[in-house]
Write a structure and sequence with these properties.
The chain has 80 residues and is an all-beta fold. It is built from no helices and six strands.
Length: 80
Amino acid sequence: YRFEGNVQTRGVGPRGGVSLRISGARNAGFQASDEVWSALSHRFTVRETLGEVELICEMRTPRGEAWFDRDSLRLVREQP
């Protein structure tokens, strides 16, 4: 699967950023996109047939603001 969407930040600085990820994933890359909308994505695999995942829009920074475009957030099933 791929969790994707658009995000914009302001005043985040070089020591922080935002990401899209699933619960339990710690390898998501953080990005800052001051004053411009940027596309983010996170690829993952569901190992259980009826497995559940929690989709997370995360901001990790000591300062600044972030906006996640709710209408752009989507879950895409990728072909194996």
